[in-house]
Each structure stands twice: as C-alpha cells, then as structure tokens.
From TrEMBL:
The keyword Membrane applies. It is an enzyme of class 2 (transferase). The chain crosses the membrane at residues 12-32, 44-60, 65-81, 110-129, 141-159. This is histidine kinase. CDD domains: HATPase_UhpB-NarQ-NarX-like. Pfam families: DUF7134, HATPase_c, HisKA_3. Residues 195-260 form the Signal transduction histidine kinase subgroup 3 dimerisation and phosphoacceptor domain. One of its GO terms (cellular component) is membrane. PANTHER family: NITRATE/NITRITE SENSOR PROTEIN NARX-RELATED (PTHR24421), NITRATE_NITRITE SENSOR PROTEIN NARQ (PTHR24421:SF10). Residues 4-167 form the DUF7134 domain. Its EC number is 2.7.13.3. GO terms for molecular function: ATP binding; phosphorelay sensor kinase activity; protein dimerization activity. Keywords: ATP-binding, Kinase, Membrane, Nucleotide-binding, Phosphoprotein, Transferase, Transmembrane, Transmembrane helix, Two-component regulatory system.
Amino acid sequence: MHSIYDWFRRHRFAVDFVLMAVLWLVAMPFSVADGGYSSSTVDMVVAGIFATALIVPLAWRRTRTVLAGCLIAGVAILQWALHVPPVPADIAVPLIVYALAAFGPRWASLGGLGLALIGAILLVTRYFYNLTSLSLADIPYGIVMIIMVWVLVLFSWTAGDLTRTKRLREQALSDRARRLEIEAQHERDLAASDERAHIAREMHDIIAHSLSVIITQADGARYAAVESPEIAPETLATIAATGRTSLQEMRRLLGVLRGDDEASTRPLPGLRDLDELLLGIRAAGLPIDYSVTGEARRQLPPGAELTAYRAVQEGLTNVMKHAGPNVQASVNLSWNARGLTVTVQDDGRGATAGLSTAGIPAVPMPSGRARLGAATPVTEAAAAPSGTGGGNGLRGMAERVKLYDGSLSSGPLTGGGFGITAFIPYSEN
C-alpha cells in the first residue's frame, strides 16, 4: 500500500489526467444533453465546448495549479458574459478552488476564493434571480441561494486549506528527519575521526617508545659486544622485555578495537607505572633523575593519569632519539593546589630549529635545574625538536593534555638541552 501511495505522489499529472478524463466522460453527456435548456444543435455544441474547457484544465490542478485556476476562471467569466446557461461541468469551479487552497501559493488561494464568492453572486443574479425584475418577495430566496453556493465554495476552500496544512506539516517532518539524519551522520563522522586520532596517539606512544628503546639497545650492543661480550645477554634481555611489554600494549589496544570486553577493562598505565617505565629506560642506558614535589590534593582520573604517563614516555623517547650521546634526563612531578605539572628535561643538543605543531617558533625555557619543581601552568606551545618530523608525538601529547583542559609547552632550554612541561588540572566533575 505504501508503494502505491508513493507511485501516486511521483506521477501526479498522470493521476490527475485520468481523474479529469473520468470526470469529462461523466459530465460531458449531461452537459450536451442539457444543451443550455434547449434542443438546438448550436446550444448543445456550445455547452459541450464550455464543458470541455472547464474540465480539461483540471489535469494540471497539482502540477500547474495557478495556470489551471486562471483558465477555469476565464472560461467561467466568458460563460457568464455570453450568457451561456450553467452546465454540470461547472463543478470544476469548486474543484479548482480546492486545488488552489491545497497546492497553490497563498495569494492564489485567497484570490481564487474571492473570485468564487463573487462568481456565486453573479451566477444567482443572472440565471436565477434577475435584479431588473426581482420583487421584494424574491430577495430572501436569492440570498439563501447565494449563501448555499457560498457554503459549497467555502467548504471546498476549507478542505483544500486543511490538505495544505497537512502537506506542509508532513514536509516539515520529512525535512526535520532528513536534517537529523545528516546531523547523525556528521556525529558519526566526528566520532570516527576522534577515534582515529585516539588510535593514532596510542599507536605512536607504544611503537615509538618501544622501537626507540630496542634500536638504542641494539646499536649499543653491536658496538659494545666486541669488547665486552658479557653485555649481550643483558642487552638482549632488555630488548625482549621491551618487546613483550609493547606486544601486551598492542594486544590491549587491538582488543579494544575488536570490542573485547576483557581487553577493554584491563587497567591503563598510570602514575603508579612510572617506576617500571623509568627502570626500562635506565636499562637502555639513559640516566634519569626522578623526583616528586608536593602532595596530590585529590586523585586524577584514570585518563588524566594516562596522559601524564604518556607525557613522560614521549619526553624520554625524544631524549633517546634526538638529545645525542652522554645526556642526562630529569623527570619531575610537581603537585599543587590546581593540579599536576609534569616536566621532562635533558642537557643534550636541544632544538635550535624547533617549531611548534601550530607553526609557532618554540620559546626558550629556563635551564633544567632551575625549572625542576615549578608548579605554575605554562602556555601551550608544543614545540618539536629538530628531526622529529614536524612534532607528531608532541602534537598528539598536546591533544591529550587539551582533553583535560591542560596545557603543554616545549622548547630549547636557555642553558642547553630541551624541555617539555605539561600541566594537568584536577577534574572538578
């Protein structure tokens, strides 16, 4: 049934043409037989012509509503002017009044109603009660007849206006449903984009750190094994442990992507796991000075702790990749009344040509020893050391911190080396 209704809506002219043809076949014989209350052949032909002219425009009552209304109005006025008596085909007048109210513009709807009301007066006064010979006794009957025709016209117009209101309401609902569908698609696209960004950050943090440790250990073992072969087992053990840890992290991430409930509920790395992270990096040959100042006023959310963990991991990974040989790194966690400040610094080559992820030149920071323990939040700059390929890791770190209304700054230190400082405020939810 629904498909039939859709077919009727898509083929409006065909449906209206068939209905017009049926109406013409029904009204035409009566109009010709009536012949204007005369048996004259001429009168019968004239009646047939006017009947056809009144009914045929109804084929365009929905596709060309105003044109059909003008044609029928013109034929009706010509019929009145030539004094052609009414015929059954005059039923086209209330039908076109309905069509104008239902499918035409508002001005055409009201104009058609006005013309039909005036036409009712002209019809009654010309064909039923002649004003020139009308007696006082006939006036009430004439008024009653005019009112009856008006009732027919007003009924047709009201029915059409109700149809118009229903059509506009259905169209508004259809437009709203279409807008909601578009908005839902946009929301799905945004969610997918956000999820891709999240996965990209996780993959970078896991792979970049692990491969940096593995490559550093492999290069060191290759050069040191010649003079000290006993170093090889220890180095291979560090590489194996780093690989196993990375494999576990990758399995956890892939489990989340597959919708594995068991994998998705496993605890994420947090501040409690920093000792293990630093132990692995120290085993890779990077000396690290780790300190904590202040006390936490309240516990950070798990996601914020993961952000702090990733900030330390990314900072130390960059030290291993870009700071050069014989460097010293320092990690400081500073708690204050507003939140946590994470600082990772080194005394290596620094970043003389660092650029922020937004293309803003990196601002030099105070020296490493003077900066440790600072608890004041910093502005977001996210500068990248030279050789980082545009600072993708720092850009991802800045995105992580921003999710928790924090800020991130990075850049070369005035006394040499490079520093990263991330501030993560307490969540007030």
